[in-house]
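Researcher: Good morning. I'm working through a list of sequences from a screen, and I'd like to move beyond sequence-only analysis. For each chain I'm collecting a predicted structure so we can compare shapes side by side. This is the next one on the list. No need for commentary yet; just the structure.
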Amino acid sequence: MLQNKINLLGFSQKSLEAFFKDLGQSSYRAKQLIKWVHQKGELEFDCMTDFNKELREKLKEVAIIEPPKVLKTLTSNEGTKKYLIELKSGSSIEMVRIPEKNRMTLCISSQAGCALQCTFCATGAQGFDQNLTADEIIGQVWIANYLDRDEPPITNVVFMGMGEPLLNFDPVIESVEIMRNQLAYSLSKKRITISTSGIVPQINRLADTTDVSLAISLHAADNQLRDIIVPINKKYPINELLSSCKNYLSKQTGKRNITIEYILIDGINDSIKHAASLSKILSNLSCKINLIPFNPFNGSDYKRSTNRNIYAFKDYLIKKGYITTLRITRGDAIDGACGQLVGDLKNTVKGKGVIEHTSIH
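Model: Good morning. Structure tokens for this chain:
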């Protein structure tokens, strides 16, 4: 039966070597399969001509290579493309292809929904449905490269779509291994970014597991405000989070930075006083700061900071010596911008309706 077959799409080289060993095959078969699937985009065993007929027939009996299904796509005027992707459960997630001058970035999801309920994010407002499997995660990269063969290949991957990547640790790392593999997508460590709201034990675990780029969804410089904007802060406060960031950097080779993500919300966290506090707490961390104007969504009464406040905030940090960038809002016309991804969830928990933020003011 089909449902009993193993989907090899999300198997790293190490996992494939174990799989082929169980079939009585040599480990080099893993390299051959990875190359077919992730370098050539081939899904059919019958087309893998360096496998003999007996092996191809055996593979068809026990395995499949199946990416998730694309339900629909939306493309904005500036070329940002949002995909609605169906999972095996029937729920759907979203990913976004973002064209830039010298690169093509893919923003992928690691969970359907999210339990953390950050108040600036539409995904969290829906609640949590499920973790994605490794094949559903790497399947997004496969789709972007091989379903859209007329588009330029993906050069950068960011785990900034739906969900908290570090709460789905093993499938995320398995997917990262495939992205890094030179026989697959051959993305360097600097071209893969895992963004987290601050799951401290998992950041420390990540430091011993991989060396990809790390981004922290910070958004406030004091615990009282961050407790509201990013509720997981109540469990892992800012000082613990920054300590885990320093630990992460200590395990890396060469000069590396943590990216600090900071959503600018009108009247909430966008004053010069907030910028001064941010500058102070980051003074001992090797980092760059990415400022992101808030993107509205239904159910939130937050508003985007004024341009005056945005640029004053940025200029203050630059004068303090921080590498500070302002993210250009892309995909907002198709609800594909930062904080706007929602998908279609079937079995959410911890969901909520209209979000009230009056306690912040």
